[in-house]
Amino acid sequence: MRTLKIVPSTLLVLVGAYLLLVCAAPFTFSYEVRYGAFDVYSDQPVAPQITTVIDDAVRRLHTSTLYTPDQRFRVVICNSNWRLWLFSQRFSWQMGGAADTWLTRNIYIRASDIAHNALLPPGPRPLSD
């Protein structure tokens, strides 16, 4: 009978610990670049061409009716598949990226070739554009 009471509390603690980890995800990455309205976090050094990539993203954002100039963006580059799987809450290493729209509003993307403005595909096939 006592075991039945322990299981829900253990599960609650594990879920709480996971949510805390997800909320703190960007701050567990060693590298950070701030440029305009973007805060970019990565577990590897960020190429200086990130400013060109961000400028292109901003140009595209300006065409969206959902965009407002006061928005801030937190982008987390997960160079390891396990980080993308863990933090994105999508649990698929095959995706190019995911946006957490309900808890942190972080944008998670997979390993990237920033100099060429391209995501690195998870396998032999390229990612869809």
Write up what this structure looks like.
The protein has helices at 2-23, 50-61, 81-88; strands at residues 31-35, 38-42, 73-78, 97-99, 106-110, 112-113, 118-119. The chain has 129 residues and is α/β, with parallel strands linked by helices. The longest helix is centred in the first third of the chain and has 22 residues, at 2-23.
Jot down its keywords.
5-stranded mixed beta sheet; globular; 129 residues; single chain; alpha/beta; 7 strands; two-stranded antiparallel sheet
The major beta sheet can be summarized as: 5 strands, mixed
Widest sheet, order of strands: 1-2-3-5-4
Distance between the termini: 54 Å
Q: Give the CA-based shape.
A: globular
Number of strand elements: 7
Overall SS class:
alpha/beta
The secondary-structure element order is HEEHEHEEEE
Strand proportion, as a percent range, falls in 15-25%
Would you tell me the overall average pLDDT?
82
Helix content, binned percent: 25-40%
Radius of gyration, CA atoms, in whole angstroms = 17 Å
